[in-house]
Amino acid sequence: MSGIIITGSDTNPGGRKYNEDRCRVASFVTTSGGNRLTAAVVCDGVGGEERGERAAQLAIDAFFDYIRQSDLTNTPKLLSSAVKHANLIAFNEAEQLEGKQRMASTMVAAIIEGDHTLYIANVGDSRIYLCRGGHLRQLTRDHNFVNVMVWTEKMNAETAANHPDANKVMRVLGIKDNIQIDMGIYLDTTDYGKANEFGRKGFKLQPGDSILLCSDGLIKPTVTTRQPLVTEQEIIRSLQTEEGDKAARAIMGLALGRIPVGERVDNITVALLQTEDHSRVVNQVKQQEKESNEHRRKTITIASLIAIPLGVALLITLAAFAYFFIESTTSAAAVTTRLAQATAAAIIQTQTVAAFTPTPTSTKTPAPTLAPTLVAGEIAKLNDDKSLLEVILDDKRLIAAPPNQNRFVAVNHANTPNSGLLAMLGSSQLQFNAVTNSKIQLRLLPGSDLFAQTNPYQNGIEIELARLSVVISAKGCLGVHYADDSRLSADCFDGVCGFSINFGAQTTAFESGQQIQLDISQLRLAGRREIPAADIIKYRALLSATNASRQAITDCKVPLPKPTPTLEATVVKATAEQTITPTLTSETVGGTATPSP
């Protein structure tokens, strides 16, 4: 089979403070031994704090260094030796630790030889999957207590499954100076020996195959939902419609969007090796059409559910009014006039309040400024509307605002006089991709509403939407509402703003004072208009919570909302010109008819 191997990867700390996962993909035109190979590795560090990170990084570096420098021409032998070398490097480092501190790592590795023959190796409970023909099949077996006890014939499957250590990982790199490498491909067997015999012969890939390597954070259930963050069908759909880094990001975006608020889920890592398949483009178009039709169907259904009760209510109201009119002809005009006046007055009050909602004031002591004093290694500070909550050290950290609670992030890793500001409405979630001296790059998750001020970052901010290829950018002040996977709106309050509907595509600018709306299902611009009063009111209220964010109202030129037209003038004019014809009753005073009021 001819054609190239497409590679991709993504890693994220999930709900943890540290990311102890590491991954790498690489293509070797030839090794020292003359082999043409493509390799992918995922390591999940064990040991806590920085020790797990260190073990994973050492192992992955040692693996690829060995592959490049080795003169071995037998690929299974090369793969096995590279894993053993990685184990020895991690073990030697762990031996330098004081006391009984641990430093270890799992590892899964996949190598595709030039003629598209796959070889794999596994130590621990990270996994390798094959996606072929709309099915996802696990190629590895976890090295947990249950499986190891059965393989070594020390326990039967039932006894091992009921043991207190059933899920304990039994093999990792860095604990011993030598380790047994599992090169088994467990497609048609659970037997260790048979799987390894099959795996060392190599597995032929077909056009459209995808090999997915992942840490256990992607597939193990969360405590809150007791379900994995991503389903098998969602993984399959991503691999059948996207390639390389886009496919990896699509899977990661789904996972990040499912993390329960406040739960410290494990680190998440994916790496991909894919054979070429032109049908992925066709599948992508079909999937977009399916999602568009589904969105249209939901819209029609919701509209129907709203319209039918309103229609029934209107008919009932009209019938009641007709009956009232027939039965009360003599007083209908007066009642109608009073009702119209009361309704107009109510409308005036409601619209006036909506249009001129004042900036909230407080008699409490003003919240402290968000301008941080940071030291080396600190990226930002996370605050609520009263106090400092946390210093952000990891630029891959997921930051979440709980429902009904706003959060404020002061970004100032360079310790300049002014800070960049990220104000998050409740239920918003974001993750820093990178923060440099000149730019903030972050990923925004669905259900988020964010206001960003980029000072002092001269190249502004780039906001990537999780699960999508859309990027919103600004040098100045910007509001972004990413409600779901169907539509997005962005408000440019000050400076230069832009958007791109595909990674790497040309940026389209939109002006200060302007809102753009994107139809994400069609990946197109759905419209431009002035920033609506509702968005202005929303962001002014959000920014009024702290001293620093309140200053952003002025610095970002967030305007007062324009007055909403009311009926006041019309009602006054109508009242002056209106002549109400008196309705006479049968009551008389001195024989003269008295008009009803």
Sheet-strand content, in percent, reads: 25-35%
Gross geometry: globular
Mean pLDDT: 81
At CATH level 2, the architecture of the largest domain is: 4-Layer Sandwich
> What is the count of β-strands?
26
The largest sheet is: 14 strands, mixed
> What is the CATH fold-level name of the largest domain?
Phosphatase 2c, domain 1
Query: What is the distance, rounded to the nearest whole angstrom, between the alpha carbons of the first and last residues?
Result: 95 Å
Give the tally of structural domains: 2
Instruction: Please state the CA-atom Rg, rounded to the nearest Å.
Output: 32 Å
CATH homologous superfamily descriptor of the largest domain: PPM-type phosphatase domain
Please, how many helices?
Answer: 12
The unreliable regions are: 329-376, 566-597
The computed structural class is alpha+beta
Please give the share of residues in helix: 25-40%
Query: What's the CATH class of the largest domain, please?
Result: Alpha Beta
Task: Explain what you see.
The chain is α+β, with helices and mostly antiparallel strands and 597 residues long. 32% of the residues lie in helices and 28% in strands. The chain is built from 12 helices and 26 strands. It has helices at 49-69, 75-94, 145-151, 157-161, 192-201, 232-241, 244-257, 279-327, 332-355, 533-543, 547-555, 568-577, and strands spanning 5-12, 21-28, 37-46, 104-113, 117-123, 127-132, 135-138, 203-204, 210-214, 268-275, 380-383, 388-392, 398-400, 407-411, 420-424, 429-435, 440-444, 448-453, 461-465, 471-482, 487-500, 508-510, 514-519, 524-530, 584-589, 592-595. Strands 11, 12, 13, 14, 15, 16, 17, 18, 19, 20, 21, 22, 23 and 24 form a 14-stranded mixed sheet that branches. Strand 20 and strand 21 form a beta hairpin. The longest helix has 49 residues, at 279-327. The protein is globular. It starts with a strand and ends with a strand. The relative contact order is 0.09.
